[in-house]
C-alpha cells in the first residue's frame, strides 16, 4: 500500500466501515487527552500493527477499536501502523506536574515488597518506550493509561508479553493506578523523540 493510501485511511477511512483514524487520534496523531484517545504518532510500527491485529482478532477488547480494526485489511493495518510510526510525536499538552509521590515512586523505583517493578524497567527511562513490546507512556493521556491498567486488572486486555502487565497491574490499587497514569501523562518526551 502506498503512503498516499495510508494518508487516505487516516484522513478519510476505508469506505468499508473504518472511519478516519484522525477523527479520534487527531490529524497529527497526538490523540485526544480529554477523551482518553492515545497518541499514535511516533509509536513503534510493529507495536501498532500488533495492537490493530489484536483488536481485529479480539485478543484486545475495545468496543470502539474492535469493529474498526476488523474492517481494515491486514495490509491496511500495516499501512496505518507504518504511517503513524513515521510521524513525529507532538508535544503533549501542558499539565501540572504531579507532586512527588506514589506515582513517581512506582514509575521510577517500583514497590519490590509487593513484587512491583518500576515501570521504567520495561518502558525505559522517563517512560519513553522500548521497541515493539513496551510502548511509550510519557505524554500519553492519563485517562488512557489508567483505562489500560484497569483492562489488564480485569482481564479484558491480555496481549502483553508474558502477561507482565496483568501481573503488575493486579498488584496496584485504584489510587496507585491513577497516580502512575497522572505521573506519566505529565512527563515530556525528549526533544526530537519519536517516542521509541
TrEMBL record:
PROSITE patterns: CYTC. The keyword Magnesium does not apply. Pfam families: Cytochrome_CBB3 (PF13442). Residues 1-21 are annotated as: Disordered. Residues 1-13 have a biased composition (Polar residues). Residues 8-88, 105-188 form the Cytochrome c domain. The keyword Metal-binding applies. Gene3D superfamilies: Cytochrome c-like domain. Keywords: Heme, Iron, Metal-binding. This is C-type cytochrome.
Amino acid at each position: 500500500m502506498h503512503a498516499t493510501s495510508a494518508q487516505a485511511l487516516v484522513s478519510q477511512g476505508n469506505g468499508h466501515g473504518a472511519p478516519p483514524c484522525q477523527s479520534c487520534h487527531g490529524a497529527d496523531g497526538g490523540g485526544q487527552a480529554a477523551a482518553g484517545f492515545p497518541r499514535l504518532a511516533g509509536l513503534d510500527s510493529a507495536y501498532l500493527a500488533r495492537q490493530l491485529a489484536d483488536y481485529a482478532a479480539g485478543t484486545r477488547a475495545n468496543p470502539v477499536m474492535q469493529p474498526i480494526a476488523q474492517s481494515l485489511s491486514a495490509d491496511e493495518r500495516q499501512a496505518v501502523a507504518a504511517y503513524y510510526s513515521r510521524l513525529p510525536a507532538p508535544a503533549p499538552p501542558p499539565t501540572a506536574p504531579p507532586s512527588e509521590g506514589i506515582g513517581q515512586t512506582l514509575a521510577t523505583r517500583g514497590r519490590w515488597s509487593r513484587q512491583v517493578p518500576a515501570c521504567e524497567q520495561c518502558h525505559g527511562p522517563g517512560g519513553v518506550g522500548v521497541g515493539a513490546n513496551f510502548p511509550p507512556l510519557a505524554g500519553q493521556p492519563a485517562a488512557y493509561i489508567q483505562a489500560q491498567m484497569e483492562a489488564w486488572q480485569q482481564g479484558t486486555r491480555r496481549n502483553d508479553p508474558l502477561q507482565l502487565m496483568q501481573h503488575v497491574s493486579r498488584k496496584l490499587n485504584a489510587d496507585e493506578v491513577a497516580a502512575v497514569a497522572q505521573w506519566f501523562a505529565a512527563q515530556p518526551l525528549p526533544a526530537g523523540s519519536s517516542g521509541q
